[in-house]
Amino acid sequence: MKMKTRVLSPALRKVAKNELGEDLEKIAADLIVLRAWVQELGQGQPSNQWLIGFLRGSKHNVEKAKSKLEKYYSLKVSIPEFYTNRDPMDPKIQALLEHGIYLPLRKCAREDSPRPAIIRAGPLYKHQHAVADLIKISFMIAEILLLEDDNFTVAGKDILVDMQETGFGLLSQWTPSIAMKSMTCVEKALPIRLKHIQLINSPRGIMAAVAILKMFLGSKMRKRIQVCGPNYEDIYENLPKSILPEEYGGTDGSVQELIGYWKNKVESYRDWFLHQERTS
């Protein structure tokens, strides 16, 4: 049986082998097992690319991948604020896309680097969206990356959180309950490998919000969270200027261009999101 998934670049193939234990000889058999498992759960016919994302997110441990898949489908029901009403043409989703709340960058630092993304908390606060809306839109885009982006599935992702023009009203929404639900999804149900989280333009009180987040993280992940100073120089070692938008001192286009790209991309997946909701 041939493995109908994208062929990795040599650099990512090396990461997949060394960090994830990826073995091309075993993948086809593992995909058969996972597809049977998803069908047993009553969740239809997922693509190989979807399933291999869960394999990679579980470092090719089939039992862990099965557990993540089961958790993913069960959390779609038990945490509806993150997984329901995800029609990209819904006015609420349209507003989130137009405001550019969550924006993966077009380039990575290196060919084998994690996929970087910017969370822009200012528009979230200004337009009075809920933190749960941010989590919903970020999970929607993460699912697209899971299907399309090999850097994301193999090397993981880096997050730059821009807290400019936010206030206490937004921070107060980051309750232990929301933190627990979001990290349960990230760590137990989605094959996401978070490599770094950097916060910039942080308001007063941010350390309390970070402390709440760290309550639900393992020791390894806690060390990957960095609150940067007012100077953007702190972020350039991990995210070079060549991959950042102009608004962050970079040279790769503008934030508005990224907003347009991701709005169109999410809209193009409308049928997929509607199907996912029907099979919940």
From TrEMBL:
Superkingdom: Eukaryota
This protein's name: CRAL-TRIO domain-containing protein
UniProt-listed PROSITE patterns: CRAL_TRIO
Residues covered by the CRAL-TRIO domain: 90-256
One GO term describing the cellular component: membrane
GO MF entry, a single one: phosphatidylinositol bisphosphate binding
SUPFAM superfamilies the UniProt entry points to: CRAL/TRIO domain, CRAL/TRIO N-terminal domain
Classification via InterPro entries: CRAL-TRIO_dom (IPR001251), CRAL-TRIO_dom_sf (IPR036865), CRAL/TRIO_N_dom_sf (IPR036273)
CDD domains: SEC14
